[in-house]
Amino acid sequence: MKIQKYSIPTSNGNMTLLHLPIPGVTTLVRVIVEAGSLEERKDEHGLAHFLEHMAFKGTIRYNYEQLIQRMTRIGSPNAYTSEERTVYTLDSIPEFVDQAVDVLSDVLFNSTYPEVEFEKEKQVIVQEWQTSEDNPMAYYFNHAVPVICNEHATIGDRESILSHDLEKLRKFKADNYFAENIAFAIVGETTTPIEKLIGIIQANYSQLKPFRALQRKSSLKSPKIDRQVVSLKHTSKQAFLGMWWPWYTAAERFNKKNVSSLVISALGGGMHSLLFNELREKRGLCYSCGLYDVSNDTTATMLGHVMLDEKNLELAERTIIETLTKARNEGVDSELLETTRADFLISNAYALDSKKSLSRSFVDRWFERSTYTDATVIRTMEDAKETADLFTQQTVKDHIDYLLQSGYHSIVMTKEED
Questions:
Q1: Number of alpha carbons in the 13 Å side-chain half-sphere of residue 302
Q2: What pairs with residue 2 in β-bridges?
Q3: What are 230-278's pLDDT values in tens digits?
Q4: CA torsion angle for 103, 108, 114, 118 (degrees, to 10)?
Q5: 3-class state of residue 259 by DSSP
Q6: Terminus of the chain with fewer CB atoms < 10 Å: N or C?
Q7: Phi, psi of 81 (to 5 degrees)
Q8: How far apart are CA 242 and CA 279, in angstroms?
């Protein structure tokens, strides 16, 4: 299975149209703009996300109410912003793909950004930010990531959100949205010929600046071997232990056939994993724990986390290090290897059977993947089986040794004083 790639010529460079023709009764239409919070200067924090919100507030053709009604009649609209990209989506059906492409390209190129809507949306985004601040896990990530990376929360913070104005919003779009970093994508079947879809996009196109290479304004701060300890405070009664290790970049994981994902699974990726059994089943220290790859295009980090009673923080951290050290020295149970391989294959089967999963893993990451591989290629079950066969005792030992040799940041969140 391959992604079909087409060029969309414009007066200032070529955009891309991607088609992954998976059979079925639904079709997902997407616009991927390879510009997210990593493009933001200090005085722009949160603008990529703000721009995503404002895209649906009206275009030259439709006011807000008309636009939402128009989109909802042909599908389910949504969008998201990450560090690397902004993605606008409209989940529809094959018969409506031309209409979905029309309205999404109108949103992308011809949004009007009414000032009255802009001022209201400030308050909406402040409330979204407050929701994450009130959630212990979201709060932890929002405040831990700046310690680990030269980054900031994608949403910004209250001060930055309220400081923005329309001039800054328009300038951010003009400075970061180019033909060469925009891709339209059709995931599923379409009854409209590709040539006609390209014509619809070109008809809605409005002038963008000539392309320039984006300058990512963030990069990884490698965790220090001296184990830097950072303390956060929250109203939550439960403490949060986070151990942040250097990990492999997307390109490095690809070159290793993604076998590192099986290592994470075996060590801390579910109920079958070593850390789940040591921390929860054997010691009863926590409800939630695990290992997660939290890397993006410019960072390569893995997080080991436990949510537990504050009095058990040191015991949990010691248990994690002892468990990893023992696995490096002695290996892991052969049953765990087989279970992890089977779990990996089943997870891949589900992912390959899901248009949403394929969209997030392959289509949305088109520009990133194009830097280190043929991005038209979608992984198959044969690829997954090849990766599973590479997962051995030695693989586990080598990955753990990489972690233990690297050192980590320990970022702990405990209850603030009453």
A1: 27
A2: 377
A3: 889 999 999 999 999 988 888 888 888 899 999 999 999 999 999 999 9
A4: 120
A5: coil
A6: C
A7: -125, 135
A8: 14
